[in-house]
Write a structure and sequence with these properties.
mainly alpha
């Protein structure tokens, strides 16, 4: 069952984003921490609220088409929320490997990935240096062997 997120003006969209993000960022050990996915869904909704109505509509249509159609790619009944996590992952992967499906999946995936990798836990998890800090000067690494 999906969590209830009453703080959002776009409750259905936030729930759909939660489902998509939980599926997208899961790994072999399971889904990411619920709090991180909820935070991501709230951030994505806040971004959507700040966009134009047309952009919000187009994004929402992509998201809901993916959630409704993806199960068909693994020969299951429509509705990604009805599937267990491993089948959700399989459905999104299959859909992403088709021409029409890739455009829809990647539209949602791009927004969520940008927001996900802004989270401090994600930055630390991939070993990236902390973001630029005022007053701290950093040098670029020197190219070894010159430029080709």
């Amino acid at each position: 069952m999906l969590p209830r997120m009453a703080s959002s003006k776009l409750v259905r969209t936030e729930r759909a984003l939660f489902l998509f993000a939980e599926t997208l960022f899961s790994d072999h050990s399971g889904p990411p921490a619920r709090q991180r996915v909820e935070s991501l869904a709230r951030d994505a909704v806040a971004l959507l609220v700040a966009t134009t109505p047309r952009a919000r509509l187009m994004f929402s249509v992509c998201l809901f088409v993916v959630l409704w159609v993806a199960p068909l790619f693994i020969r299951r009944a429509p509705g990604l929320a009805r599937l267990p996590l491993p089948l959700r992952v399989a459905a999104l992967e299959k859909m992403e490997h088709t021409a029409a499906g890739a455009a829809l999946v990647l539209a949602v995936k791009a927004v969520l990935c940008i927001l996900w990798y802004e989270q401090p836990e994600s930055v630390a998890g991939i070993g990236v240096d902390p973001p630029c800090q005022p007053g701290v000067r950093r040098s670029l690494p020197v190219l070894s062997g010159g430029v080709a």
